[in-house]
Design brief:
Layout lengths: L9 H11 L4 E5 L5 H10 L3 E5 L3 H8 L10 H9 L3 E4 L10 E4 L14 H11 L7 E4 L7 H11 L10 E4 L18 E5 L2 H12 L5 E4 L2 H32 L3 H8 L23 H11 L5 H26 L9 E5 L14 H11 L4 E5 L5 E6 L3 E6 L6 H5 L3 E4 L8 H7 L3 E3 L13 E3 L5
Parallel strand pairs: 1-2, 1-4, 2-3, 4-5, 5-6, 7-8, 9-10, 9-13, 13-14, 14-15
Antiparallel strand pairs: 6-7, 11-12
The structure holds nicotinamide-adenine-dinucleotide (NAD).
Length: 455
């Protein structure tokens, strides 16, 4: 070594040069809320990008230049399809063409709330079957510490290629926040931790092609754990205000005003707000990944589990609020008509996964309130489940206007979509149960019953 400095291994060096010259191919496995935006971002930078998914219907749409993710502009998908920087396939063998492969598959939990990493295992096997020297694999799915090293690496090592020498492996968690107008893939800093220092360096270089700031950490386990910390931090803080909201209801203090006034402190406080519960594919699920792993080490994550318990009790609390408002009217539970506003798990998105609104509807249905309707401009239809076998399909009412609102005994705001006209809702409903403080600025609050306002 002429310079006396330790040089990168030849394979790592080659890949680094390819990335630096932007002459490399990216593969993205799992084209959902995380994978498709990532693929579009690379392709729009002119990097040849190939998307892989087991869902043939998604691949078919993409093969026609059609988009199905709300956060992505249709014309962006069309543009990268038209200029051939992006293609999609169900065929894993094509992954041998890729230099950098991101894995963005689901990490749900089982019925018993244990982690289900089968999607990670299956997709890694698919990639490993076509692996060649010089590839970098980056796992992005949120998961417990140790997944990359103990579950992914043994599969890729079975190819007889050597990690850190022939191929490279890293974990780099996703931070996308669907519906967020300010923070997107390009301007949200991201962390990467590789199995070896070269794995980390290559992971940083690949991410830097599309992301302004990439932070290297020492191991994949640090990256895996920091992602769980981010989401558990939210879960625990939301649980705290959800508990305080219930206390405030008893003592006659408005929790919303409490949080907003506390947030005037310029340091050491961050506002979180109560609601009907948490949903989505992350904050509800991720704490269970860590709790499960902790048990293997004879450690009970009491704090985290208590937070999950409080958050998961919120749909039950909201059910109680709705039924109390029905009880005040001359109508039985069986005959009462309830309209729920918003089914998505959070505002302005079309994602229904683990939505607390859906849970509230199922609980009401179970109590015999079968006249439930809902309105959500993003969710045309939902299924209410009772156990594994019984399900009932509800379709969104077509229009939200005064005539519609007047038909219902109770209207419950479960998701505070920006497009709702809250003044119109507050004036024309018999009673509004507001679980999101969505009616904060309406002029006439006489018929509004707010979660956590102590009245
Ligand atoms: N959605 C978010 O806001 C968000 C944010 C941060 C992290 N995450 C994490 O990212 C991961 C992906 O989440 P998502 O919301 O994109 O999920 P998603 O369900 O929207 O997309 C996952 C995609 O993977 C595909 N898939 C499943 N098995 C596959 C296989 N074996 N091979 C190829 N494709 C396969 C599915 O068909 C689907 O299209 C999860 O671990 C999640 O926790 C999600």
């Amino acid at each position: 070594m002429a310079s006396g400095k330790k040089q990168q291994d030849g394979t790592a060096n080659n890949l680094m040069q390819k990335i630096a010259s932007r002459d490399f191919t990216v593969g993205v496995v799992g084209l959902g809320y995380v994978g498709l935006p990532l693929a579009v971002e690379f392709a729009r930078k002119g990097i040849k990008t190939i998307g892989f998914d087991v869902d043939a219907s998604k691949v078919k749409l993409l093969q026609k230049g059609k988009n199905y993710i709300q956060d992505i502009k249709d014309e962006h998908v069309y543009e990268i399809w038209k200029n051939k920087t992006f293609s999609a396939t169900t065929d894993y063998s094509v992954s041998s063409q890729c230099d950098v492969i991101y894995i963005c598959v689901p990490t749900p939990f089982t019925d018993n709330k244990d982690p289900d990493i089968s999607y990670i295992v299956d997709s890694t096997k698919g990639v490993a079957a076509a692996m060649r020297k010089g590839q970098l694999i980056i796992l992005k799915s949120t998961t417990f510490p140790g997944t990359t090293r103990k579950y992914v690496k043994p599969i890729t090592d079975a190819t007889k290629l050597v990690c850190g020498k022939d191929y490279f492996l890293a974990f780099s968690p996703e931070r996308i926040d669907p519906g967020n107008k300010h923070w997107h893939t390009g301007n949200t800093p991201i962390v990467v931790g590789g199995i070896t220092p070269d794995c980390t360096k290559l992971g940083v270089a690949a991410n830097e092609v599309i992301i302004d700031k990439v932070i290297p950490v020492s191991t994949p386990e640090v990256a895996e754990m920091e992602k769980l910390l981010e989401n558990i931090f939210r879960s625990v803080n939301i649980a705290l205000v959800n508990e305080l909201a219930q206390l405030c209801d008893r003592i006659g203090v408005n929790i919303w005003e409490v949080v907003e006034s506390a947030a005037t402190k310029p340091f050491g406080f961050m506002p979180f707000f109560p609601g009907p519960g948490i949903g989505g594919h992350c904050i509800l699920i991720d704490p269970y990944y860590l709790s499960w792993m902790a048990r293997e080490f004879d450690f009970v994550t009491n704090f985290i589990e208590l937070a999950a318990e409080v958050n998961e009790s919120m749909p039950f609390y909201v059910r109680g609020m709705i039924e109390r408002e029905i009880a005040k009217q001359p109508v039985t539970l069986q005959k009462a008509k309830v309209l729920m506003l918003g089914m998505a798990f959070k505002k302005d998105v079309d994602d229904l996964r683990h939505s607390p609104a859906l849970k509230v509807a199922e609980l009401l249905d179970l109590d015999g309130i079968t006249n439930i309707s809902y309105y959500d401009p993003y969710i045309p239809e939902v299924e209410l489940h009772h156990g594994k076998k019984n399900k009932r399909v509800l379709k969104s009412v077509k229009k939200l206007d005064a005539t519609t609102l007047k038909k219902y005994d109770v209207v419950c705001i479960t998701t505070d979509h920006s497009s709702f006209d809250y003044n119109m809702i507050a004036v024309n409903s018999k009673i509004v149960v507001d679980t999101r403080n969505a009616c904060k600025n309406v002029k006439n609050k006489k018929k509004v019953v707010l979660l956590g306002d102590g009245k």
